[in-house]
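Objective 1.3, modelling of assemblies. Example input:
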Amino acid sequence: MTDCTESDGTSDAGPASADRRGFLKTAGLAGGLAGGLAGAVAGAGYGKFSLAPITPAAAAETMPAPKLSDKKWWPSKWGPEDQAGASNHITPAKVLEAAKWIKDGKIYKLGHDYESAMPLFGKRAFTLRIPGSPTGGPFGENRLVYHDEFVATEIGQVGTQFDGLGHIGIQMGAAGDKTEMRFYNGHAAADFSDAYGLKKLGVENCKPFFTRGHLVDLVPVKGRMMEAGEEISVSDLRAALQKQNMQESDIKPGDAIFFNTGWGALWKKNNDKFNSGEPGMGLELAQWVIEKDLCLTGGDTWAVEVVPNPDKTLAFAVHTTLQTKHGIYNHENLSFDGLIADKKYQFVYIFTPVPIVGATGSPGVPIGVT
Amino acid sequence: MTDCTESDGTSDAGPASADRRGFLKTAGLAGGLAGGLAGAVAGAGYGKFSLAPITPAAAAETMPAPKLSDKKWWPSKWGPEDQAGASNHITPAKVLEAAKWIKDGKIYKLGHDYESAMPLFGKRAFTLRIPGSPTGGPFGENRLVYHDEFVATEIGQVGTQFDGLGHIGIQMGAAGDKTEMRFYNGHAAADFSDAYGLKKLGVENCKPFFTRGHLVDLVPVKGRMMEAGEEISVSDLRAALQKQNMQESDIKPGDAIFFNTGWGALWKKNNDKFNSGEPGMGLELAQWVIEKDLCLTGGDTWAVEVVPNPDKTLAFAVHTTLQTKHGIYNHENLSFDGLIADKKYQFVYIFTPVPIVGATGSPGVPIGVT
Amino acid sequence: MTDCTESDGTSDAGPASADRRGFLKTAGLAGGLAGGLAGAVAGAGYGKFSLAPITPAAAAETMPAPKLSDKKWWPSKWGPEDQAGASNHITPAKVLEAAKWIKDGKIYKLGHDYESAMPLFGKRAFTLRIPGSPTGGPFGENRLVYHDEFVATEIGQVGTQFDGLGHIGIQMGAAGDKTEMRFYNGHAAADFSDAYGLKKLGVENCKPFFTRGHLVDLVPVKGRMMEAGEEISVSDLRAALQKQNMQESDIKPGDAIFFNTGWGALWKKNNDKFNSGEPGMGLELAQWVIEKDLCLTGGDTWAVEVVPNPDKTLAFAVHTTLQTKHGIYNHENLSFDGLIADKKYQFVYIFTPVPIVGATGSPGVPIGVT
Amino acid sequence: MTDCTESDGTSDAGPASADRRGFLKTAGLAGGLAGGLAGAVAGAGYGKFSLAPITPAAAAETMPAPKLSDKKWWPSKWGPEDQAGASNHITPAKVLEAAKWIKDGKIYKLGHDYESAMPLFGKRAFTLRIPGSPTGGPFGENRLVYHDEFVATEIGQVGTQFDGLGHIGIQMGAAGDKTEMRFYNGHAAADFSDAYGLKKLGVENCKPFFTRGHLVDLVPVKGRMMEAGEEISVSDLRAALQKQNMQESDIKPGDAIFFNTGWGALWKKNNDKFNSGEPGMGLELAQWVIEKDLCLTGGDTWAVEVVPNPDKTLAFAVHTTLQTKHGIYNHENLSFDGLIADKKYQFVYIFTPVPIVGATGSPGVPIGVT
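Predicted structure (tokens):
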């Protein structure tokens, strides 16, 4: 997920927040409270369906279990202490199996460059400065000079981004109760949240990926770019596989799957629309991913899941389902143009998250090797 | 290079700069001007041989060509417009050749985690903060919460770091003359330096690496950790290859070479000593790298070259030789512990720089696959 | 307060954290839970008396009211919606009364410059970079060039710093329950805490100060610099006033009071010791400040209160007493050298916090005018 | 000056740069080269009159002296080493003279709050994050919790901002020749420019202001908000003084003068227009300021001078005239609404720049006391 709210107080009356307000109106995410008051109540400030966080007043009421989460999902199948999730699939056997797909020797960069012109969701920022010019020198009789760069940014949650397992959780108890704010493998925010970096589930715990990647291109199936709020069904997936001459049975545990919706064409072309919502996976397809026991999903959108969800009471429910409950990773804002141009739908997906201790995600462009 | 100077003004009288002053004293890099005034003049503030930048007064004099750079080194063999340097070696043929080395399916992470405790050279900084706790939520009836992370840092020049081709240049004319501040392929700072990111030679121009990597472990050859200022000779290299049962002739154009000096054992154990200098390549070995036509050098130190250089008038002369003149990349602060434990000296080196537009380098841990 | 904890996990094993560990050992702040288990339990990791935050396990127990806070302290005397606290004392009458003290026309800067060499507590950071050189230009036929500066820092909580009313609160309910995490005037974190800036009690709510300032110099009373953990008693205050020929009765509601302990001499001279604790106000003197109905306290230390508190179960109890319960502001890391050299103990204290919306404090050097 | 260019490369094709391109088209600042090729040449990318920096090619030609700067302007009247400029006017006599104007005891805040919604020129950024929630605690049996804030921003050049003397200079020699990049008092960039903070002319050298301030309200004179590119003439100034019943002769050396153009009404209401240019001082009025020997100018605009200058070959020529040559300070993005509502045109202007070592400017809202 690239972001999921905007408080949109008066201090954001400036032009920069126009696209965010637009998003709320368009995307119509449900921020509804338990009890079903949803849209109607929140309508005023946040559009028909709102992203307004659950208020303290609501938190004071006795809350039932969150929707979709009536029972605990831990311990994980990799043990109660595991922090690596589905990256545990990447075993030597998996690497060897994947390596067999290297036949052309061709490398595809599957992401975008990082720059201030990229769409940034919500209040996230990306700034880069070159200190000095040059930063230092000349030194020595060989007269060396050098440049550095200084960035200030949500490094793991801007541009092409990889969600670590400390990014998305579910508030199981009362709003604000960190002992019941649960993440992958039941790890509670109370145990690992810290102002200076997560104490558990930091992205450094994720193992490098070197696995088989399958690309599902929905554009030929639909004959057009998919639209915001349009869900990819399992049937769409199957239609795409058939068009691409691929067997569903060839998608195996530990593989990675990627969706091209066409939405990525808006990147830097129409950032407002790009941020306003997106087509993507819904809960049906998420269930298919779980059953296939994959290690990672990815797409050409900022969340890889349908936004808004057709069920307006849900906010990024595929995130909470795949990432939080199953430890299945998500790679967002990818680009498959090269693969598609070459009609290469199967490749080795290689990516190592930048191991920033306590970070929630990682920058970096994965490669697809064929 | 991790850094190369410290102005060390009075505003740095605090404890944080102790290691830097120590470095200047120990490393003794020559900041001397052509003409040999070096150490004697600069001695007072910077140790016997100094890192003091060349002063405007000196710049006013007519300067001869920089040492080692009496003639221009451009255009590059990849054409006058090239910005990718030795990453051009990574062709499909190279990938296929390298992939043959994947036999075990084992992945080695060849770098360190990023954290505030890592040694940071000079005035570089690394700060990470988690905004809020959680950063947002709960949202929806599924009550999603999420964390982000915000970093402020010299992102491509801290920790395990990859030097891009906009990092190191040579002042060919008078100090401060950016039209003669030349980088790889002759690109002049006047044409690409910018406060908001390099306009040319940004790390986004570098192609992904997927090539054969050779590790040269000097520790068994020396019977100990190498010391600061100790140069790795070609003869040392050959002795190591022999111990490792490797053939020098098996190191081919476009391959990558890595040096383990033992110095990396100081990482987080004795950061002051780690930063105070280092063992590494000298000009002899750099020449060997050039003749071998490699794409990249790497090591367990912050510069991968000997610091201080035995020739005290030189400052990071291997950097200016390999990176600036030949476009050969450098990967610093690597860790080879896993490879060495398994006696794996040949592997596929895989790394994709994070394509931050206009950045001088990249974070990220490369992998070695066997 | 400049800071009050250090999690000190393994990722901080480097040299930078040495002073912090030292602090924990020296200062010995009690992190003990209600029930008196204090030091003994926490001892291992945090020194004899610890700063370890209250754990979730502890939070799960039924907790009695926090020490010193068995009843609620709101609404404030300035009304239930007030966010300006004791800056409400600064009325036109107060300004006119203060202005009478301007007799010499002399201005004293009462703080330190901001620079990387200043003592920074805990994990706070201060980094400044000049983007480019110059940042832009030359432009026009008049050939203008310009520089900017880029900082990344805890802007209101580094160096000479002014604590706003959103900085310090008291956890009244279970640990982590933001509905009972109470600040000035009873404002609850649940209502105003936000990843992008406090929604209430931001420092922009504070009114500019222009009031009578009284300096109390303890050094002549003690005949030496006061030491860490040494409390300034009301009797010490009276002895100092007498030495300075001042009347206690001349200190009136809305005035500001400042303490010189001598500790400030360590600034940039011995940052480790400076950060290791400090002399200052205790609860007795805080009570005197409350009865005097002052608007602000200040001092030459990073907290202006005794650290560690003689009662080892308390952590910065003067902060929670004066700031949280009474809205009385605190100005830290001041310098009174000029005033003392001129034997000027009464002056007009003038300071306007930088109104950063949602910030917890403010940078800026106040002036004393005589 | 808030900024003066936009390189506007392809990496800025996104929506964020729309206003910047608009500015270039509207404001039409001349970036013309000596030789008068100005607009015609640069037209394509930068609008009719351009802000394109002088190119290296142009720099290679022999350049005549910059327009308006055919002779050197140093040493300053405060001596060849002076770094404080016109703040030297603030003597005890001046303070006493100013203090006489304190009759009401009323304090006016003369600036805006700092927030992400404020107009930011060019590529400057303002980001604020609250680390954790809370940042730390609970600690002790008194259960203290606390918040910090972390900002990353061009701290002295965003929002209400005070220009220090290291901000604006003139390229006297060839473009890029730092030995002839001259600032106040002739200080050359080669001597003080540094990636980690200016070594001279940092804002910490400026003395606190406590002087008489005169507000000139142009809106009643014009009967409307002044427009971008509209210059305030000396005759306008006199008309305003007359309307306000003020004597020109009452404006004395060391006083400060402020201009209200009405443009400030666009703040956060229409940031694009606000940034697109502005009304303000031209060279005639600047000359009047010099003859009056004032210490500071200020206004409700981002540069306090007319943009674009009626002479299209000039870029912010009032800045280079007043700041660079005369050391007269400039306070930008002020707000005079309170003073105007109360018809208070004379007041004590009080401001102390935040003394960040090596910074080019300062944040902070000055106060006007009557």
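Chain D touches chain B at residues 7, 9, 11, 56, 59-60, 123, 127, 129-134, 150, 152, 175-179, 188, 190-191, 194, 196-197, 199, 357-358 (CB under 8 Å).
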